[in-house]
């Protein structure tokens, strides 16, 4: 066996960690002013070492460590310092829940902020972004570092400023949408983001894996092409199953036979159904799907003249949802009801490629090791597991597997009942809202009080508060797996939060449901203190959100701060006593109700228990009817179900079963990984194109002299068209086209041009181009100075955007077509790459030509 100690990353970085400790001792003696001055000093040092951040790492880490101590009174653990080093070196730091990752991120954030190019700390939701932002504001006020925050509520007009801060807290989706919007800006002053430099991604697996399956899309509606839907509908009515197309029910797809293809081509009078410039294939296939695979009153119903989807698993109607990619419209055409507008993608990017735009990237989470390969191959980030501060002693009990789903839920409810009787806090994780409601109903019948949480975005803040208190005695908490993400469960409750709730409740009468009476405040405080509290009832609520140590500084808050401290001390004691009792009961009990689509998410749930060396237990209750096993279990589980004839209520224990369950779960993991990998590989193609286009766009946007660009485009166009001219045996028509396109006044006739050598023609055309353009410029300059530059920029950006949007659409069609065409043929990805390249070149040529055409004729616009 390998010597584990050798692989403990602590040992590798021991010298650095000691060095940080040494410097910390020195900094302890600094005054607050001196500590603040450190930022300035470090910036100078950094300049002198050519911005090599590694050299000042120890000093910067020690500085922020001291700032953390002074501001919130916590001393970072050794493993937290280690986590900071690992993050700085562009890795993923796997650190369990409750290890204090929020603070860990501040170490590399501070160090890298000193470079002055901005640091982004990315979180999964607004609540966490704001929570961590507030904490960082407090801490960094000791260091002269500015902190920004961008959430969905941040006004557009403030965003640029927030992105300009040294460190900015932001959610992944705001980051992505701002990136796309910036690249659609018409004025350079409208751009809000700086170039991406350094990002620390919190809950990195959620963002880079779970959310990476669907790209971010900015869309707008387009006009509907009624006749296409209707004509496709007619064509498909004359096609026959088996002869002309085949139906694949499992994947819900239709495939045209060769005969089918040629009939379509004949009926539509086109030469190639799969030609990318012909829109037909998508409409035909959708019409066929509508005809064969989507049935009225099974897959959808018609209500108020609308197609309404029926969910295939639950049978519930899903109002307001629409099938994508034109399928919904094809069904509308089939049913002869009004065809609604389609959405058109204006810009899109996958999270994979968004994050790869950073010069330096790192992430942290409690659960990454199981997806190590993916992180390494796609993001080039190794996963390094940081040991916990205290040894984890949670017991993960073996799964209990029931034959039927019903008996599984029954036993879960009974287990909750037993736990509730003893007072042991229990957290039950479910995979869907429906299932959590099912359990809630069962608990109601058993008369067990519970908190029910699901991951609706609007509830996130409230949920976080419930999760904080899920470690109190008698707490039974049911949650879907996303709920309360990023907040850890402290046994006995979080005394700071409780104190805040109590005071807020007292002052503002907030009817907080964990804290209905405030009598205990009266028990703890002296009469005089109570009256101070009462006198403060009108106090601005804001003062209270800025709680804790900050009170100390402001005189008028001093009394309140003392009251806060007194209550805190009391609740701290109460919580500690309660924690002690809970530990005697065995700590937090986590119940899983279904294996998730990856082991990682199971681990996330288990990891809620056993934080910071606490006792704890986890157990999964499963059934052979669970979705995952039904769909991915294969024959072994099916056979087991048949042969096992034991009582429903007794869980089965069998090694073969556990093995089959594990392999089913691995199959699901692999399945989703493939989807992400494929998305990534295909997106890589368009990503390189996007980068090129965005770069060109940015160049134009920031340029004050776009004339060069126009001339360059025109010269390219002349070059390209002359090549075509030569290829086509000096076809005179092409010369005419060039002259028409450039709108130049040739004084010599085409005949003379035809007699010239190609080089001479080129020279002549380029010269004429400049002369014409000079004249145009003089003319426009007289009309309105500066107008020509505006026009140039306008046409350039407008045509680039238009062509790019059309290109995205073609690319997505191309991807679909390739999928259809390539049954059994060569590697579809290679084919996709080749065709994508041609499409791109065509787009570029098209952009150049239309811009030239429009600019050379811009006189018309003025005349109108
Ligand atoms: P994670 O994100 O790793 O799950 P958090 O950053 O949410 O953990 O921190 C969990 C809790 O631990 C917070 O209440 C935090 O104040 C506390 N904490 C963090 N670091 C320390 C420390 N060095 N000493 C004591 N408490 C700490
Ligand atoms: Mg966290």
UniProtKB/TrEMBL annotation:
Name by which UniProt lists this protein = Protein translocase subunit SecA
One example of the protein's molecular function in GO is: ATP binding
**Topology in membrane:** Peripheral membrane protein
Q: Which InterPro entries match?
A: Helicase_ATP-bd, P-loop_NTPase, SecA, SecA_CS, SecA_DEAD, SecA_motor_DEAD, SecA_preprotein_X-link_dom, SecA_SF2_C
Check the record and name the Gene3D superfamilies matching this protein: Helical scaffold and wing domains of SecA, P-loop containing nucleotide triphosphate hydrolases, SecA, preprotein cross-linking domain
- Protein encoded by which gene: secA
Q: Which GO terms describe its biological process?
A: intracellular protein transmembrane transport; protein import; protein targeting
Q: Which residues form the Helicase ATP-binding domain?
A: 82-240
* Statement: the UniProt record of this protein carries the keyword Hydrolase: no
Task: Give the source's domain of life in one word.
Answer: Eukaryota
Binding-site positions, ATP: 80, 98-102, 488
Q: Which organism is it from?
A: Rhodomela confervoides
């Amino acid at each position: 066996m390998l010597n584990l100690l050798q692989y403990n990353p602590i040992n590798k970085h021991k010298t650095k960690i000691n060095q940080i400790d040494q410097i910390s001792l020195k900094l302890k003696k600094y005054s607050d002013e001196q500590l603040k001055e450190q930022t300035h000093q470090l910036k100078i040092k950094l300049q002198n070492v050519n911005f090599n951040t590694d050299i000042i790492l120890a000093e910067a880490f020690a500085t922020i460590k001291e700032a953390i101590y002074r501001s919130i009174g916590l001393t970072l653990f050794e493993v937290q310092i280690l986590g900071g080093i690992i993050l700085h070196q562009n890795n993923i730091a796997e650190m369990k829940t409750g290890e204090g990752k929020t603070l860990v991120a501040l170490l590399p954030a501070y160090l890298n902020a000193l470079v002055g190019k901005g640091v982004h700390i990315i979180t999964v939701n607004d609540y966490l972004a704001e929570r961590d932002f507030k904490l960082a504001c407090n801490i960094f006020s000791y260091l002269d570092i500015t902190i920004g925050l961008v959430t969905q509520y941040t006004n557009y007009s403030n965003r640029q400023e927030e992105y300009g801060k040294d460190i900015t807290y932001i959610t992944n989706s705001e980051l992505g949408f701002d990136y796309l919007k910036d690249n659609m800006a018409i004025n350079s002053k409208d751009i809000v983001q700086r170039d991406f430099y350094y990002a620390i991604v919190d809950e990195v697996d959620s963002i880079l894996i779970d959310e990476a399956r669907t790209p971010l899309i900015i869309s707008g509606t387009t006009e509907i092409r009624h006749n296409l839907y209707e004509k496709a509908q007619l064509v498909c009515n004359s096609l026959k199953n088996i002869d002309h197309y085949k139906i694949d029910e499992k994947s819900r797809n239709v495939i045209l036979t060769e005969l089918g293809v040629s009939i379509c081509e004949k009926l539509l009078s086109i030469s190639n159904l799969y030609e990318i410039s012909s829109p037909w294939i998508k409409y035909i296939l959708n019409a066929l799907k509508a005809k064969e695979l989507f049935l009225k009153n099974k897959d959808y119903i018609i209500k108020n003249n609308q197609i309404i989807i029926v969910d295939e698993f639950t049978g519930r109607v899903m109002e307001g949802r629409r099938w994508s990619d034109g399928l919904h419209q094809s069904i509308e055409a089939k049913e002869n009801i009004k065809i609604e507008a389609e959405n058109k993608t204006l810009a899109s990017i996958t999270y994979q490629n968004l994050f790869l735009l950073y010069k330096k990237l790192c992430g942290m989470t409690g659960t990454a090791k199981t997806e190590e390969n993916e992180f390494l191959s796609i993001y080039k980030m190794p996963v390094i597991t940081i040991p916990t501060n205290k040894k984890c002693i949670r017991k993960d009990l073996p799964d209990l597997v029931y034959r039927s789903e019903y008996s599984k839920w029954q036993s879960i409810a009974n287990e909750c009942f037993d736990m509730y009787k003893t007072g042991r806090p229990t957290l039950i994780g479910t995979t869907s809202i429906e299932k959590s409601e099912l359990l809630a109903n069962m608990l109601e019948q058993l008369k067990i009080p519970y908190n029910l949480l699901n991951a609706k975005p609007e509830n996130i803040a409230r949920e976080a508060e419930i999760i904080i208190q899920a470690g109190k005695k008698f707490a039974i908490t049911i949650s879907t797996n996303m709920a309360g993400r990023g907040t850890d469960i402290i046994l006995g409750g979080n005394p700071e939060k409780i104190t805040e709730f109590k005071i807020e409740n007292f002052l503002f009468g907030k009817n907080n449901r964990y804290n209905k009476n405030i009598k205990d405040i009266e028990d703890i405080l002296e009469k005089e203190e109570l009256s101070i509290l009462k006198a403060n009832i009108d106090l601005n609520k804001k003062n209270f959100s800025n709680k804790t140590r900050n009170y100390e500084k402001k005189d008028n808050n001093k009394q309140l701060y003392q009251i806060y401290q007194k209550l805190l001390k009391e609740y701290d004691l109460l919580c500690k006593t309660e924690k002690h009792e809970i530990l005697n009961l065995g700590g937090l009990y986590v119940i899983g109700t279904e294996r998730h689509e990856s082991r990682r998410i199971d681990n996330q749930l288990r990891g809620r228990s056993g934080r910071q060396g606490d006792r704890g237990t986890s157990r999964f209750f499963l059934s052979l009817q669970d979705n995952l096993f039904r769909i991915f279990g294969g024959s072994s589980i099916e056979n087991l179900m048949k042969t096992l004839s034991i009582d429903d209520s007794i869980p089965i224990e069998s090694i073969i079963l556990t093995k089959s369950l594990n392999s089913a779960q691995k199959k699901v993991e692999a399945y989703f990984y493939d989807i992400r990998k494929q998305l990534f590989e295909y997106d890589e193609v368009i990503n390189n194109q996007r980068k090129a286009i965005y770069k060109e766009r940015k160049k134009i946007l920031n340029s004050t002299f776009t004339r060069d660009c126009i001339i360059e485009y025109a010269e390219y166009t002349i070059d390209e068209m002359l090549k075509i001219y030569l290829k086509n045996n000096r076809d005179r028509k092409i010369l005419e086209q060039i002259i028409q396109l450039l709108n130049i006044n040739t004084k010599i006739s085409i005949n003379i041009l035809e007699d010239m050598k190609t080089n001479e023609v080129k020279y002549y055309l380029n010269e004429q181009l400049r002369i014409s353009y000079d004249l145009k410029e003089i003319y426009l300059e007289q009309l309105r100075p500066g107008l020509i530059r505006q026009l140039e920029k306008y046409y350039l950006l407008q045509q680039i955007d238009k062509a790019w949007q059309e290109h995205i659409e073609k690319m997505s069609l191309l991807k679909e077509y390739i999928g259809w065409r390539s049954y059994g043929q060569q590697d579809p990805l290679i084919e996709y790459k080749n065709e994508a390249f041609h499409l791109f070149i065509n787009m570029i040529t098209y952009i150049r030509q239309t811009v030239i055409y429009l600019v050379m004729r811009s006189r018309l616009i003025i005349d109108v």
